[in-house]
Amino acid sequence: METMILSEDNLINALCIYHARQINVMPEDVEIELCFDDDEGYYADAYYKGRKDTYRVANMLAAIRVFLQEELNVDPYAASIRLEIDDEQGMIAIVE
After folding, report:
1. Which residue among 21, 31, 76, 95 has the highest number of C-beta atoms inside a 10 angstrom radius?
2. CA distance 25 to 22
3. DSSP 71
4. pLDDT tens-place string over residues 78-94
């Protein structure tokens, strides 16, 4: 597989879709904030009608795998995925 970089926008879209399915709402009704800190590492906060849910790396990777399969037609289990922070692009996922 060729290396693919998923932008911050793609990560947000993946998490919006994933979270919306979890709580049975429309993806456009969900807000996502991607986060990183030295103690917690990578995580994302999902907001819907004042409720906040936090996704850790394992759940973020699950959301990315669904996005890869459904939106990009990539075998999600044949891919290695790692999250990184890029100075210009923000949080990205490198898929190999």
Report:
1. 95
2. 8
3. H
4. 889 999 999 999 999 99
Tokens of 61: 């990777």
Q: How far is CA 14 from CA 22, 38, 39, 67, in A?
A: 12, 24, 24, 5
Does the pTM surpass 0.90? The reply is yes
Examine the pLDDT at 26 and tell me if it is beyond 90: yes
Is residue 55 within 8 Å of 64, Cβ to Cβ? no
Residue 79 confidence (pLDDT): 86
Q: Which pair of structure tokens corresponds to residue 58?
A: 């394992």
Tell me how far apart the alpha carbons of residues 43 and 96 are, in angstroms, rounded to a whole number.
21
Q: Which two tokens stand for residue 79?
A: 């891919």
Residue 40 dihedral angles phi and psi, to the nearest 5°: -90, -25
Structure tokens at 69: 């399969």
Token readout for 35 is 């986060």
